[in-house]
Every structure is written in C-alpha cells, then in structure tokens.
Amino acid sequence: MSKMFISNKHLKQLKHLIIRSMHLAIDIRHLTTDQHSGIGRYTIEIIKRMAKIAPDDRFTLFASGAPETLSKLPKFSGKNITIVKHEMPNRALSAKLHFTAHTLEDFLPEKPDLWFFPNINIIKTHRPYVITMHDLSFELFPSFFRVKDRIWHKAARPRYLAEHAELVLTVSENTKQNLNALWGVGEDRMVTTPLGVDDRFKAKEQACDTNNLKQHDIEFPYILSLCTLEPRKNIETIVEAYEKWRASTLPLPKGELEGVAVPHLVIAGGRGWKNDNLHKRIKNSKYTNDIHVLGYIPEKHKPTLYRHAELFLFPSFFEGFGLPIVEAIASGTHVVTSFTGSMQEVGKEHVTYVDPFNVNDLVHAIDVGLKHEHEVGAHIPGIFSWDAAARRTLMAIKALEPSS
C-alpha cells in the first residue's frame, strides 16, 4: 500500500468518495478490563460507529489474554464485526512477537488489508497500519509514570510506530504539534480526529439520577474531580486547594455554616498509580469527613455525577485531549482546568483556566466557580461528537491508496 497522506481540509472533499470495500483489523488488547479509561472509551465508540457507517467493510477485532481476562471485553454487535480472541497472556504474546518471527496477523484467520491501532502497544506486523497517538506525556513527563510503565513504553517503541505508520491520527492539534516538534512526524502524515461526547451528557436531570447518587452515598452538594488517580492529574493540588478554600471562607470544619450546606469534595476515578501521598493527605486532612474517594465510576453513572456537581475541577498538568472537560460542559457544570496541553483547545471560552502549579490560583477559581449558575448546557461544537470522530477516522483510513 502506497502512502497518500491528506491534510485535515482535504477530508471534506472525501465525504462522497466511493471506495472499495476494506478488511480492517483493529487491536483491542487494551479493552480486556472492566474499567475503561478515556482511550478505552475512544476505541469502543470509534469501532461501533465505523462498523455502522461502513456496512460493506469488514472489521476484525483482535484481543489476547487469559480466559477470565477475555471475558471482560465489551460487547460489539454487527454482521461486519468479527472478534478474534487469542487465549495467551499479553506478556507472553508480546514476548512471542519480540523474540520470534510471528506477527500479529499470524493470529488472524486471514490477513487484513491493514491494521488500525487505537493506541500504542507491543506491535509487530508486515501489513500497513494506521495508529492513534493520544499524547506524548510519557515523553514529556516521564516522572509521572512508574518504572515498569517507562520500561513498557521503551519496549513499545512509540516513536518507531509513528514513523513507520501509513498514517498517524491525533486527538488534538496539540498532540499533532508535539509529534512534529519532538519526533519530526510530518504534518502531512497526520490527521486530527477530536474525541466526542454523546447525548447522555446533558444538564437536564434524569430519572436515574437519584438512584445513581444514592449508590455512591452522595446526599450533599459537592465539587467533583473525575479522572484516574495518577500524578499527571494533579489531584493532590485539588485536595490542598479544597483545604485552603475551606479554611479561608469557612472558619469551622462543619458540614454546614449558617444553615447553608458546604460543598464536599468528591474524587472519582480508577485506582491509578503513585498516589500513596494523596491517600495519606486525605486521611490526615482536617476535612477528611468531607472528602470522598469513590473509586472507578461506571460509564452510565458519569452523566449524573457531572450534572449534579457544583463545580468540576480538572487542573491536570498535561492532557492529549481532556475528554472530561467536554463531558462536564455538556452537562451544564462549570469547569476549572489548566491552560496547559490541549485544554484551551478543548475548553475554549467555556471554562476557567488556572496554572496547575499554583495552588492559590485554584483556590481562587473554586471561590469564583462556585458562584456560576448551572447552565442549560453549553453548545458543544459538532466536531466533538463520536459520529464525527468515526467518520473522520474512516475517511482518513480509506483515503490511503492501495498498491497497484
């Protein structure tokens, strides 16, 4: 397959282009979990929608792992979707790819036209491929990752994967610029496909909200943080800012002041890593009874948490996109986020920006943000939709010309 790289503006010209049917293999090894991150959500939404958009194309999804791990894969329906489950632990498969002549397509019933990798992974293939690069946080902020994570990234060779891909998809212009500046990936070899938000995220209260809140024992107003508990998300600063805000505006650590309920701090998200100091800080906090760590939140509960929050805090040090920002905006909740990474690209004029390294900046933003009225739900540009992301992805892939 020869390379025909297209710029973002050229995608518009491809909307009505009729292209031969395609057999696309998609790596879903990272979906063998019941707790999906933003990358997992991206993968699921893109696959489901591409399969509907292109009923004449074939999509072969490949996963590996132990039987109990493979049982956690999400459900995919569609006559044009086939799931290949290879019962081998991912570490063993990675070793086999590294030390033997095997390639990923050797584990499929037939060779695909090309591969689509929705995230970096241990990859070896003789087929052309398209890969999505979500961010370069592992390159820019290695200290945020565990030693084993850094070793894994080295083994995955993300720079090599980007350099040898037929096409690189990025979820933001910021990531695209990082790839160009740090690794020299040409802009004509990349297409930006922003993430989406579906219509479950809305400001209007839903019938399920009361029950969803009860399941998490939430019976009080709250400020929300929703993300994986990892250093890059800057959650320790959120806790410190909350403590300072409480101390400066509410002199007593009670749950009420002058009959007005004081917002608690709700921290929701997957377990993550390198967060021992965070848990110690919460345990020793003067306001520990008003700080609630919920753990992983099912996708169906997230809209409820967003729209009932008094304020959403997302002062991450760096993001490739920042999906929670768009979800909170769509839910009518005011957002406080950082001016770094892709956050300004995503939040635009709808949010309050802070310096993620300045706790006092966040304290002030909390004070101001709580005075914002809940909105009906800010207008989310059409580009931030899963349908748009899937169409853009499919058009970019199908624009690659087959070899003669």
Q: What's this, in brief?
A:
With about 400 residues, the chain is α/β, with parallel strands linked by helices. It has helices at about 10, 40-55, 65-70, 90-100, 135-140, 145-155, 160-165, 175-185, 210-215, 235-250, 275-285, 300-310, 325-330, 345, 360-370, 385-400, and strands at about 25, 60-65, 80-85, 115, 130-135, 165-170, 190, 220-225, 255, 260, 265-270, 290-295, 310-315, 335-340, 350-355.
What does this protein structure show overall?
Helices cover 35% and strands 16% of the residues. It has 404 residues and is of the alpha/beta class. The protein folds into 2 domains: 8-196 and 385-398, Glycogen Phosphorylase B (Rossmann fold, 3-Layer(aba) Sandwich); 209-369, Rossmann fold (3-Layer(aba) Sandwich), CATH 3.40.50. The strands form 3 sheets. The protein has a 7-stranded parallel sheet, with helices on both faces. It has a 6-stranded parallel sheet with strand order 12-11-8-13-14-15, with helices on both faces. β1 (23-27), α2 (38-53) and β2 form a beta-alpha-beta unit. α10 packs across α15. The radius of gyration is 22 Å and the shape is globular. Mean pLDDT is 90; it is low at 1-18 and 255-259.
